[in-house]
Amino acid sequence: MPATVVVGTQWGDEGKGKLTDLLAADMDVVVRYQGGHNAGHRIVVGGEAFALQLVPSGVLYPGVTPVIGNGVVVDPAVLLAELDALSAKGVDVSRLLVSGNAHLIMPYHQELDRLNERFLGKNALGTTKRGIGPAYGDKAWRVGLRVQDLLDPKIFRAKLDVALAEKNQLLARVYNRLPLSADQLAATYLDDYAPRLAPMIGDSVGFLHEALARGERLLLEGAQATFLDLDHGTYPFVTSSNPVAGGACTGSGLGPRDLTAIVGIAKAYVTRVGAGPFPTELDGDLADTLVARGHEFGTNTGRRRRVGWFDAVLARQARRLNSLTEIALTKLDVLDAFDEIKVCVAYEAGGQRYDYPPYHQSVLHEVTPIYETLPGWHQDLTGLTDAADLPVAARDYIDFLAAAIGVPISVVGVGPGRDQFVRPS
After folding, report:
1. What's the rounded Cα separation, in Å, for the pair 94 and 111?
2. What is the per-residue DSSP string for 244-287?
3. How far apart are CA 103 and CA 34, in angstroms?
């Protein structure tokens, strides 16, 4: 399998980091292909937790080369702090390759992100205010600064001056903020960040194709998930890039025929952070129980996640959008305490049944879930290592989801640790 893609099938936080870490054991290269530090992975190895934001999960394996692809937006301060934290825990980060074509997040991106959310008021999108959207906006406007610009001070300063001429007017005239200093920004990025990052910057596209030519195995991981995709998600409550499997090609420089397996990650229930439609959302005691048992708080932001029952309507759409070859189901153990578990198998709106999400957002906001109810199992799954030991009700739940989605479930997570998973037969 030359290249495998790992993609979230819900609204993120499905446990992509753990699965990527699991698959990375058999890989030579792990590539992050889009997003920024607005999404985090939490991986537990030997009882020690590693919170990753920009660095690909494969960094925890000595034989893996981690690559930050061209589709990522990079905040150098965050990246360097993350590398320092990993180094302090004994992780070798010297193998990291950062694409010269990746775009830089600048302080004015973060400032504009914060101000815009405040300006929107009750219509705020719920962004993490990390500058991701404005950085991608500048990329589309063709006024962004790229990682490779750190290697050419003259080019960096010229591009910075062009960007600040517009950004400072916006900050001053619209938001009544003081202008940013080009001299201070250039000093920080060129004198502080560039010397440390320079050894890591290179031609990621060439490196990946040469790795394929050598017969090496590649794993591509995205941030966020299918329904936060800029084109296919619940717009406008989405991210500013394409987490779907197609984005793995544009964000890495690989071609579609290089992808041979696409693994969708699905939590055994559903969570969402921020605003936007959520047909199966729960509240009250059920929601509190799911949040508490699943530790459903953002890795980066600490925000409480919204929670709901598994939504097979979304999962079927994710199967279509990503050409999924299999599903990895995570956090099944969180459901251990429930007497019964519901699965949304379809929506109803205006007397019409929907087996896939309605294309029009006004309809999606009004749908009523159609549920099937399955029995719970009231057994602690966290110590299991063999799928044969799963209680019958848990196996029935897995089989039900696989049939409802139309894709086999190949891995089931039964705890947060690296080794806490089983493989259904």
Report:
1. 32
2. SHHHHHHTT---GGGEEEEEEEEESSEEE-SSS--TTB--HHHH
3. 11
52, 39 contact by CB (below 8 A): no
Amino acid of residue 419: D
DSSP state letter for 323 = T
C-alpha–C-alpha distance, residues 89 and 229, integer Å: 33
- Condensed to tens digits (0 to 9), the pLDDT of residues 76-88 reads 999 999 999 999 9
pTM greater than 0.85 (yes/no): yes
Instruction: Give yes or no: 13 in active site.
Output: yes
Contact between 59 and 66 (Cβ < 8 Å): yes
Distance from chain centroid for Cα 159: 29
Residue 125: both structure tokens together = 């999108």
* Candidates 13, 113, 138, 333; catalytic one: 13
List 37, 41, 103, 109, catalytic entry: 41
- How far is 264 from 39, CA to CA, in rounded Å? 17
DSSP string, 22-66: HHHTT-SEEEE-SB-TTS-EEEEETTEEEEESSS-GGGGSTT-EE
Tokens of 158: 């010229």
283 in catalytic set: no
Q: What is the pLDDT of residues 242-279, one digit of tens each?
A: 999 999 999 999 999 999 999 999 999 999 988 899 99
Per the CB < 8 A criterion, the answer to whether 308 and 277 are in contact is no
The confidence score (pLDDT) of residue 298 equals 74
